[in-house]
Amino acid sequence: MPVPWMICILALWVLVIGETVLLILLLRALGALKLKTTPIEEPEGLKIGTIAPSFVFQDGSGNENALKQTDGRRRMLLFLRPGCPACVEAIRLAKAVQGRQEVPDILLFGLADAQTNKVYAREQELQIPLLTPVSPSCDELYAIRSVPFAFVVDEQRQVLAKGVASHPLLFEQLLTTKNELVASSL
């Protein structure tokens, strides 16, 4: 085969491969653009902007408190269920941000009985107390359908943000919500 034909064939292959790469990059850019413009559906649970109802809970020692006693500061109410694989990631994320100044206080609630929560807290080596709701059922009161689920509430318990809290990006988005209303979901 003559050299000019080989050069032409090689040039055509380079052109085809280059166009394929450009097409892939274009499709990725369009996909990212679609994600940015897709409206976020508000996850289930209490409506953003409503006042989160108070409920009674026990700490690991059996002492009872009410959520309204924690009013006056921003909090993240993180609801977990012992044995839930995604909850392990949420606990890891909560441990990682514990004590940071710019994030709200994190209150962990185990949606199980006190003994199960105590064992689970020991297994997960929790430094943050795992609280046990006494009554009424938080699943129903807060309309929680999946765990781990978090609500960020302000000083008066108004829901500022809510969402599933098992992904680092969503967890960070929930934590960094200032005074705006954000629904976090994937």
Give structural notes.
The chain is α/β, with parallel strands linked by helices. It folds into two domains: 38 residues; 129 residues, Glutaredoxin (3-Layer(aba) Sandwich), CATH 3.40.30. It is 38% helix and 20% strand. It has five helices and eight strands; from the N terminus they run αβββαβαβαββαβ. An eight-stranded mixed beta sheet has the order 2-1-5-4-3-6-7-8, covered by helices on one side. The longest helix has 35 residues. The chain starts with a helix and ends with a strand. Keywords: Membrane, Transmembrane, Transmembrane helix.
What's the mean pLDDT score?
Answer: 86
Radius of gyration: 24 Å
Report the end-to-end length measured between terminal Cα atoms: 56 Å
What's the helix-strand series? Answer: HEEEHEHEHEEHE
Protein name: AhpC/TSA family protein
Keywords: Membrane, Transmembrane, Transmembrane helix
Transmembrane segments: 6-27
Organism: Thermosporothrix hazakensis
Keywords for this entry:
186 residues, alpha/beta, Glutaredoxin, 2 domains, eight-stranded mixed sheet, 38% helix, elongated
Brief overview:
It is built from five helices and eight strands. It has helices spanning 3-37, 85-97, 114-123, 138-141, 168-175, and strands spanning 56-58, 64-66, 75-80, 105-110, 130-135, 149-153, 159-164, 182-184.
